[in-house]
From TrEMBL:
Domain annotation OB: ranges: 27-112
Protein's recorded name: Aspartyl-tRNA synthetase
GO biological process: aspartyl-tRNA aminoacylation
GO MF: aspartate-tRNA ligase activity; ATP binding; nucleic acid binding
Record-linked InterPro entries: aa-tRNA-synth_II/BPL/LPL (IPR045864), Asp-tRNA_synthase_2 (IPR004523), NA-bd_OB-fold (IPR012340), NA-bd_OB_tRNA (IPR004365)
Organism: Homo sapiens
UniProt KW keywords: Cytoplasm
Pfam families: tRNA_anti-codon (PF01336)
Gene: DARS1
GO cellular component: cytoplasm
CDD domains: AspRS_cyto_N (cd04320)
């Protein structure tokens, strides 16, 4: 049996709460690695939590070595990581992330749960409609693959949106019936 011998003393901040008001604060974030790309002595990670994501930067400097940058670049997509970093305001909006005004400058990174190097489907392919993928010659995911790998398919923004709508409708019906004395 694998058990942790100690409980780390960290307060995790949600990705949606990373805003300009938290600029220059040191925070801990637990999220999935959505994408990573290394570029010289730095690595850009996109960390995702539900429908929110933020760009994280691991760069060679006081807090990161060249080996740490290489380690971060080789973390598999969909792995769960704990990241300690400083929230920094950016000069130019980050268009590919929901948190566009800030990025996370990584000081420490721990892999909590390493994903398989090769997943049965990629989220980018699962989001793409089949007709659009065929026209452009890009990969799409068929229904059987989606159902066989439902845990991964539920992480797509489309699936998340469907369940949020369903939840909102159920909430409205429940509220209306309660207000009418049912």
């Amino acid at each position: 049996m694998i058990q942790s011998q100690e409980k780390p003393d960290r307060v995790l901040v949600r990705v949606r709460d990373l805003t300009i008001q938290k600029a220059d604060e040191v925070v801990w974030v637990r999220a999935r690695v959505h994408t990573s790309r290394a570029k010289g002595k730095q690595c850009f990670l996109v960390l995702r939590q539900q429908q929110f994501n933020v760009q994280a930067l691991v760069a060679v400097g006081d807090h990161a070595s060249k080996q740490m940058v290489k380690f971060a670049a080789n973390i598999n997509k969909e792995s769960i990581v704990d990241v300690e970093g400083v929230v920094r305001k950016v000069n130019q909006k980050i268009g590919s992330c929901t948190q566009q005004d800030v990025e996370l400058h990584v000081q420490k990174i721990y892999v909590i749960s390493l994903a398989e190097p090769r997943l049965p489907l990629q989220l980018d392919d699962a989001v793409r409609p089949e007709a659009e993928g065929e026209e452009e010659g890009r990969a799409t995911v068929n229904q059987d693959t989606r159902l066989d790998n439902r845990v991964i398919d539920l992480r797509t923004s489309t699936s998340q949106a469907v369940f949020r709508l369903q939840s909102g409708i159920c909430h409205l019906f429940r509220e209306t019936l309660i207000n009418k004395g049912f």
